[in-house]
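[retry 2/3] Glycosyltransferase family 4 protein: previous attempt timed out, resubmitting with same input.
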Amino acid sequence: MKVLVNAGPWLEVPPAGYGGIENVVATLVPALRERGVHVVLASVGSSGLEVDELISAYDEGQFTELQKPYNQVMGIAHAHLARVAAELRRRDDIDLVHDHVEVVGPAVLSALGGPPVLHTLHWDLRKHPAFYGAFPPGIAVNGVSESQIARAPDALRAAALGSIHLATPLADPPADREPRVERGEHLMVMGRICALKGQHVAARICQKLGLPLVLAGPVSGRDTAAELDVVAQNPYHPLHSHPDVRYHLDQVAPYLDGDLVRWVGAVGGAERDDLYASARAALFPIQWDEPGGTAVVEAMALGVPPVGLRRGCLPELIDHGRTGFLADSEEELAEWVLRLDELDPEECRREARRRFTPLVMADRYVELYERLARH
Ligand code: UDP
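[retry 2/3] Glycosyltransferase family 4 protein: success.
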């Protein structure tokens, strides 16, 4: 089967550091190929992922262009889409398009009358009514958690072909991947620094309990404290009043004065894995209905128990009391943090190996492809 996987023009695959959708694609594609799927990846030229074919409209990721005016952003999106459309018109051997970008583009591709289109929903759907409120005809969709689908606008919920949980290569048999790092005392939040991820809640809890906390993640695409300083010091910088920048400066930075809470910027690759694996627990004080939770399954795969608020996909991923803890309030979250000794990190690894490996995810997608593909 030949599948055109559309990862969009915004970041290379795999991404150098942060990159939610691109990380998912980088996890899925090798497992699809292991199952014999021929993958044509639509991304940017600098993508390093091993694929059967790579097509692109841009040499480099266009992520920073997302700050530009709407028309320019749409121009980039359209140029990428036109490249994909040209490919589909040029050849007739593609069985299915698996889109990860947004829902309007795939509807246009579907209208070309080529192969069927499957779009995977990655976002919190209620937050993007412009894209998802009016669901376009012609495409199949799946979600990344039951909770995401349950909260979707009616038409979308009715059309969805179920959900497939996210996966991580870290969940693959860890025999040759025994923890390289000692477990430390610190707790960790791994994710974009933004109000939705709730780093300030983690900081408040850790300060109250006197526990060390490490925060890793970019602030609005800025990966280091030095880069962010440039934005923070210059009130005329276009990002100066960006909500994530304001959140960091106003709600997170005040906790960074003492010794307990550290922000290490964005981390990637082995550095990220080691930093994560050395944590005692991963905190998810999320302030939204997290749709997929890659960072949750990564923590489990590394034997780091996730402890989070009972929202979004978290109850589907975490078995409370066995593979992590779920809390209904900040106070309760703090109480569970004090009971981490009751959890067995090995149980987290086992669960990840059973449920969250790339092949588990790829097998579910191959099933869906087979249902949808034209033959
Ligand atoms: N991430 C990373 N470096 C960082 C912070 C996050 O590589 O400094 C990765 C993290 O490991 C995960 C992804 O970014 O793979 C975040 O995905 P998640 O689904 O948790 O959050 P979202 O897509 O909402 O940002």
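[retry 2/3] Glycosyltransferase family 4 protein: The mean pLDDT is 92.
[retry 2/3] clearing retry counter.
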